[in-house]
């Protein structure tokens, strides 16, 4: 089975969003990439075999028709205790799974040898880290500070090995292997 990768964009102070889910421009590096960032985007698109996200991330994307032109045409596993009455528009296949460990397990089966990306929601990321489900952390650190934002990391202690750094004009991309 493929690796499980926590892949998030963060501010310099570790926020994945403001208190109300903003700012959208935190993710500009991905949706309007510089030539240097384009190679990173393309590598992500090639390596991902399935995604795991939380219900809040799913709901935000669905409310903005964010899955109509999904750059990741893979199965998405949404950690949620309920299924929406109407699934998000677009061709993306969604599975609603009540348990984070079960969502990751099912995503690994769907991904085969490709990676499973934990791609949305600080709570889901924290649960996956606390449960020891993540093999690698990839952070796109944007040159900004978000006050009162949603922090990616909680009090979970992690030992990491630096396995890569790529600096682009839009973000510094960090890769860490989790040492178990």
Fold and architecture overview:
Helices cover 26% and strands 33% of the residues. The mean pLDDT is 92. It has a single domain, classed as Dihydrofolate Reductase, subunit A. It has five helices and ten strands. An eight-stranded mixed beta sheet has the order 5-4-3-6-1-7-10-9. It is an alpha/beta fold. The chain is globular and about 40 Å long. GO terms for molecular function: 5-amino-6-(5-phosphoribosylamino)uracil reductase activity. Pfam families: RibD_C (PF01872). This is Bifunctional deaminase-reductase domain protein.
Quick tags:
180 residues; alpha/beta; Dihydrofolate Reductase, subunit A; eight-stranded mixed beta sheet; two-stranded antiparallel sheet; 5 helices; 26% helix
SSE layout:
Elements: E1 4-11, E2 15-17, H1 28-31, H2 35-47, E3 48-54, H3 55-63, E4 75-79, E5 94-97, H4 100-111, E6 115-120, H5 122-130, E7 136-142, E8 150-151, E9 159-167, E10 172-179
CATH superfamily: Dihydrofolate Reductase, subunit A
Task: Note the total helix count.
Answer: 5
Give the biggest sheet.
8 strands, mixed
Determine the strand fraction and express it as a percent band. 25-35%
Q: What top-tier CATH class fits best? A: Alpha Beta
Secondary structure: number of strands:
10
Order of helices and strands: EEHHEHEEHEHEEEE
What is the distance, rounded to the nearest whole angstrom, between the alpha carbons of the first and last residues?
Answer: 18 Å
